[in-house]
Write a structure and sequence with these properties.
transmembrane transporter activity, 732 residues, alpha/beta, 3-stranded antiparallel sheet, 6-stranded mixed sheet, ATP binding, 51% helix, ABC-type transporter activity
């Protein structure tokens, strides 16, 4: 923290330069004093001083000195920046120290890449109320070793533009225009870029180092010691050395890291691949001012290593604004400005909207282009009627947006951007190459081991369910204890088996939140091609087997001996295996429902309803032969795994058993039970039921694979989210 504090002190003077011209205001007296008698009045655009600083504008020189030996891309990126930004973009940031075991005296440099976009337009049906164009004819570029920020109010197209540059638009979106990487229009291969979502799922039961190490194992080919090196580099680059051995946390029983550190961990996960270009959606999302400054200083340090940073931001403080190299200002999909930060201030001044005194530049920009302020303006006017001395903000946002857009289109800034894009694209530079992926077998092994570790540490995953199963089993065992082996106990014993299987399956609902979190983690990793549907399902299946078997054997032993079933070891082992298969099927069913809804409430409601229907069709309340043929027998009785599990357990208990009727006559176990439950007289039928349960366990996971692989569940999730938004809007 001392290092960050010292760096923030260095940037204070430079950030003041980003708020007002240095020729007008000394760096030690950044904040102006208001005019006498105006302390009660809100700051408006008319209160601002006039700025006519020629040094605040960007100047592009045609013949920059490049290091590429005639390469047009290198020549373009060597263009000198504005003198006003020389303090900010200089190498005043000290290189971070390498932690012990890092294996070097300095963090290794990252080979960045230039990116440029020309006439980029993105259309999405239903995204906008009056137009399908989310981004309209945007032009811009980003250089290695710089931070380019896309700024604008909510729903201005920031994230859409970022996704378009990274090639991550949804299938419903259509992109027009051109995106160049190192002068080439080729698609960025795997590992050449990183993308950090606005909200990323982290595994709270792992430490920072463990989380990044498992991410490296999933992403990178090669040997283990090589991956440890890149993990330490990522930890050092994001200033996470003090938190490397701390749990990420985020659960009710784990305090873990704060939001700022968690956000840096999500960025460090992408740095494991050492990408040339890093796209970040809202790096300051849900961060306070201190965490935001710490994050941006860390990203500035990362940019100094050579990485090309492009990210979106909604609002920033003055100090954070001073760290930006270039800014792309959007409003309703229109580009209102692209260029260096000080030039943006001059652009607003030229358009008639100079930055007010004592106001952050980003606040000033959003005040001018955010249409939501119109409602505040109307409110202020009403207050002015009641309080005559209260000055309203008399500015129409729509007029300001049109003025800024027209001023920018006819300005030298727009012409300079087009010139720079031409220089970046007139000749192709170095082609980005794929860095290779870890093999499928390696990913399965990593996910299996990680799942075992996570499941063993998180008590809400399986340990809670184990406790609930033991409590349920003890309750059932004491309720049905001392039944004996007489003919009169058959009906009661059937009820005991039914209650044990049905209620134990229903208690599996406790695992829904953990499965939903696991699916979210998979979605976050799959979006960056770190994982796949097959390896995720196989790793999750293999990792859950030890815990499900532990629950089955512990619950089965307690139930078996408390109820007093037949004293035979082979019969006991079949009971354990049958209940284990029942748990496997139930786990697959929960995974299917959780993947279908992606919501705790709807997943819980659907799972309870499904279990109730399966219990009704299991043949206990009414024998299966007597069930109505349509619906209840076909298909409900045949798709209910309760039916096959209970039938197999009862066949295991009663086939081969003989009951005496009086002193002379005796009947078989099959004859004794057929009035209470329908089973097969074939002794091999119980093994067929076991195979059916195994097929169901794999069948549910096959359906989940189809949902994850082809995204068929996205329509259900999107409709659920749309209904939620409609309910919120109607309640307002």
């Amino acid at each position: 923290m001392e290092e960050i504090q010292s760096q923030s002190d260095l940037y204070r003077s430079s950030s003041s330069c980003a708020s007002s011209p240095t020729s007008r205001v000394p760096s030690s007296h950044f904040f102006y004093v208001r005019k006498p008698g105006s302390l009660r009045q809100p700051i408006s655009f008319e209160d601002s001083p006039e700025w006519d600083d020629p040094d605040a504008r960007m100047e592009y020189e045609a013949g920059g000195v490049g290091g590429g030996g005639g390469d047009s891309i290198n020549d373009a990126t060597a263009t000198p920046i504005s003198p006003s930004l020389s303090k900010i973009n200089s190498g005043s940031m000290a290189s971070p120290h390498v932690p012990e075991g890092g294996g070097g005296n300095a963090v290794r440099k990252i080979a960045g890449a230039s990116i440029a976009w020309r006439d980029l337009t993105v259309t999405m049906t239903g995204k906008r109320k009056y137009s399908d164009k989310v981004v309209k004819s945007s032009n811009g570029y980003a250089f290695p070793g710089t931070m380019t920020v896309i700024m604008g109010p909510a729903k201005s197209g920031k994230s859409t533009l970022l996704r378009a540059l990274a090639g991550r638009l949804p299938p419903s979106a259509k992109m027009y225009g051109e995106v160049f990487v190192n002068g080439s229009k080729s698609h960025m291969p795997y590992g050449s870029y990183g993308y950090v979502e606005r909200e990323t799922e982290l595994i709270g039961s792992l430490t920072v180092r463990e989380f990044l190490y498992y991410s490296a194992l999933l992403q990178l080919p090669g040997f283990l010691f090589q991956k440890r090196g890149v993990v330490e580099d990522a930890i050092q680059a994001m200033s996470l050395s003090d938190y490397a051995n701390k749990l990420i946390g985020g659960h009710c029983y784990m305090k873990g890291l704060r939001s700022g550190e968690r956000r840096r961990v999500s960025i460090a996960r992408e740095l494991v691949m050492r990408p040339h270009i890093l796209f970040i959606d809202e790096p300051l999302y849900h961060l306070d001012s201190v965490s935001a400054l710490l994050m941006m200083v860390t990203l500035k340090k990362l940019a100094s290593m050579g990485c090309t940073l492009v990210f979106t931001i909604y609002q920033s403080s003055t100090e954070v604004f001073g760290l930006f190299d270039r800014i792309c200002l959007l409003s309703n999909g229109n580009t209102l400005f692209f260029g260096e930060t000080l030039a943006c201030l001059q652009h607003f001044s030229n358009a008639g909207f100079p930055c007010p005194i004592m106001q952050s530049p980003s606040d000033h920009f959003l005040r001018a282009i955010n249409t939501d302020f119109d409602r505040i303006i109307a409110m202020c006017k009403n207050w002015q009627d009641d309080n005559g001395d209260f000055s309203a903000v008399n500015m129409d946002t729509a007029v300001a947006i049109r003025t800024l857009e027209a001023t920018y289109r006819s300005s030298e800034d727009a012409a300079s951007v087009e010139t720079m894009i031409f220089k970046l694209t007139e000749r192709e530079g170095t082609q980005l190459k794929s860095k290779g992926k870890a093999g499928a077998a390696t990913r399965v092994a990593v996910l299996t081991w990680r799942s075992l570790l996570v499941m063993s540490r998180e008590w809400k995953y399986y340990w809670l369910r184990l406790i609930l199963y033991m409590i349920l089993t003890l309750c059932i065992g004491t309720l049905y204890s001392g039944l004996g082996h007489s003919l009169s106990s058959v009906a009661t014993r059937v009820s005991a088996v039914f209650v044990f299987v049905s209620f134990a399956s229903l208690l599996g609902i406790a695992g829904i939140p953990s499965l939903l979190k696991e699916i979210k983690i998979y979605g976050s990793e799959a979006s960056n091609q770190h994982s796949g549907a097959f390896v995720f399902l196989l790793g999750q299946f293999l990792g859950s087997i030890p815990f499900l078997f532990l629950m089955s054997i512990s619950s089965s032993l307690v139930f078996y001996f408390m109820v007093g079933l037949r004293d035979d070891f082979s019969l006991l082992m079949y009971f354990v295996l049958n209940f284990f298969m029942c748990l496997l099927v139930n786990e697959g069913l929960m995974l299917f429902i959780a993947c279908l809804w992606r919501d705790v409430y709807w997943s819980t409601l659907t799972l309870i309803s499904t279990h109730v229907i399966m219990m009704l069709a299991a043949g206990h309340f009414r024998i299966r032969n007597a069930l109505p043929k349509p619906v209840w027998t076909y298909p409900l009785a045949y798709i209910s795994f309760h039916t096959y599990s209970i039938e197999g357990l009862l066949e295991n208990e009663y086939l081969g058993e003989v009951f005496a009727v009086g002193e002379v006559r005796s009947i078989s176990g099959y004859e004794a039970i057929r009035g209470d439950y329908q089973i097969s007289p074939d002794t091999s039928s119980k093994w067929r039921n076991m195979l059916v349960l195994l097929a169901m366990a794999f069948g549910y996971r096959l359906i989940v694979y189809v949902l994850l692989r082809f995204g068929l569940n996205k329509n259900v999730s999107a409709r659920l989210l749309l209904c939620h938004r409609k309910n919120n809007s109607s309640s307002r």
